[in-house]
Amino acid sequence: MRTGRYSIAELFGNRHIEQLVIPEIQRDYVWKAEQVQGLLDSILKNFNDWKQAKGTPRFKVVPEEPQDIEKHPSLENDFTAFYAQRYHGTNIGFVYAYSDGDLPGQYYLIDGQQRLTTLYLVLLAVASRNDDLKERFRARYCLQSTDANPGAKAIPTKLDYRLREHITDFFHHCVPYLLENPEHAETLQQQSWYRKRLDEDKTVKNLINNFTKIYSHLENELDSDCSDDAFKYLDDLVDCWYFDTNESVQGEELYIYLNARGESTATNENKKAELLKSLSDEKKEDWGKKWEEWQDFFWQKRRKGLEDKHNNPNADRGFNSFLACIKNLEKLKNKGGNECEETSLEVIEKYLSALKWLGDNKGSFKKLYSYSGWVDSWFNEIWSVFNNPAMTDWDANFKDDKKPTERNKMVLIWGSLLSIFSYFERNDWEPVRINIDDIERIFRTIRIFWLRYKNYNRSVASLPAAVKDILFNDSPEFIGSESKEEALKWNLLKNTGDEERRHFEAVIWEIEDHPFNIDGRDLDNQNISHLVDLNEQLTLETLNNVKETFYRLFPKDNKKQEERTIAQILLYYGEFWHHISPWYHKNYDFSDWRRTIRGKGNVEQNVAASTTVFRLFFQDFMKKNKSPNEFLKMKQDEWPESIDPVSETSLRKALIWYSQKLQDNFLKEGMYVVIDRPQYEESDANFPKLSPIWNTSGSFKGRNKKMSEQKENG
What we know:
The protein is of the alpha/beta class. It has 3 domains: 4-244, no CATH class; 254-473, no CATH class; 559-709, no CATH class. It has 27 helices and 11 strands. The chain has helices at residues 8-13, 33-53, 67-71, 74-88, 113-127, 131-141, 165-180, 202-221, 227-236, 254-261, 267-276, 281-300, 316-333, 345-366, 373-387, 404-426, 436-454, 463-472, 484-493, 498-512, 515-518, 540-553, 560-570, 593-596, 613-623, 628-638, 651-662; strands at 4-7, 19-22, 90-99, 106-111, 159-161, 238-244, 578-580, 586-589, 672-675, 694-696, 704-706. The strands form 2 sheets. Strands 1-6-3-4-2-5 form a 6-stranded mixed sheet. A hairpin with a 5-residue loop joins strand 7 and strand 8 (586-589). Helix 13 (316-333) crosses helix 15 (373-387). The chain is flat. 36% of the residues are buried. Residues 8-275 form the GmrSD restriction endonucleases N-terminal domain. It comes from Desulfosudis oleivorans (strain DSM 6200 / JCM 39069 / Hxd3) (Desulfococcus oleovorans). This is GmrSD restriction endonucleases N-terminal domain-containing protein.
């Protein structure tokens, strides 16, 4: 999850977060009545101010033309939302967390535990006041819906206490209980699931005491008919600064990050004042009008590239990010000097012209191709970078290994802007002189940097020279191993006619844009060469066959059953799986298709691209007009070996044996196979020379079963 400012609803509802966990290394929940009272008073004061104003700003939007309000009905609503957040919101400060790659969705709190726990209790107390709010609380702040009469049932919560095992169990029981019985917190100790040792637990005592305090205070200070508004306020107008330590590594300055956001002041307004102050009145008026037009442009694009849940009520975020972006891009063009002068109005205008040109001309480029789906994805991503609440640190050093995400975004944004900016410079800033052939060349260049971005390339320092080389040279130098595939494609296409080249490019792009192919990060930046040899013998017919076959194997609707079938087929070609943590037993991932299709599963060693397990299968599969299930049946019938379980020592052959026995039930628990669990010293029930072979959903906390215990021919 990205670092940024989030409302409580956005934090708990983020798609990346399953649970916010208070781990065992954290201290107890120690807030006392006075600290709880302080937070509660602050929230209630801001809530009452907000409710009294009824969300109506003291200022009104006055458009130059009255009909503008009719054209943009969301204008006043957006301003009202912005005003409410600015003047009546409650910020609870910083929340720090980290995630464990082995446990996706689990985010472990480093700081913010006391405030988030107290706020969770406030939400629980407010929600307990009516049935509709109870349902909303269950949906957002619990992992499962709770029954109206939960009894002894424990319900996992999105805020999860793991200080000690008995606290986890207590919290999962007390939340649904208090949701239904808020006035009877003192009876918690009488419930069947309550354990005597909880009496002396500091966290448990403070949870009970503070909830009682909160509920009593709300009963006295908050009218029952205000409960819905109060819950909405807690959801949407109480927020925090969330800091993800996985994304922003140690040593990063939080102050710089917050300063770059432009939240407390409108940075573009400050820059405007600085740039206009030395101009004559006539020029000041002229440039002032242009600046307002630029702000209006970013206002119109304020939601571009954002998910629906992200609110962006004004132009500031996008405009501020754009200004910071081009300032450091100019620094790069000026050979990376330590400092550069303030970006001039003329330079800002040129870059803005370049950005507008890209949006205005992408449609002309798309019309030339039978497939160009990547163009809209690329353009939305540009605006996502500018408009995202997690602002990019554009001042990051181009070579700073601690800023990989920022450098990767620079490859995308700067590579795209330089592609058109360089053409403008060559044409003396007369865009009308750029013809359709130029448009093609520009977007072909952008495609290269789009792929580099998707491959997590961070090579920033060479961008200006690389862009010009690709734009203006018929035989550009693609330097470095990361550019090997780029050079192969360029040499394949450079001597083809215009129409033929477009046909080739459209098919290549569609193959590359499959989710398994587009992300070549840490996989030699391969987006297509793992499937087909990019040489002079390659025909359009072969390329189309590759595309159709790959999408037949891995359709966009992502049928999991098909993936299980493909995994069974691959067993007949060799070992392909990927060894992952935990390392105290052999845990093999059969579903990492990014690696598998490239022959990069770490059990598959030093294999040429043309002879990987997947490539050998893929070449065979292209020749057969069969479904994956039909192809699997063919391989099973053709299998020449008789596998003797008593003497067999090969895991692959044991899995083939189980695959033939279990049929549709093979890998039914999940796409993971585990052997050599330390606590299991006995042998597999069918293969005495191997330890038990387990099929799991990824860990032993989820679904798991020994293959020897699974039903045959399910």
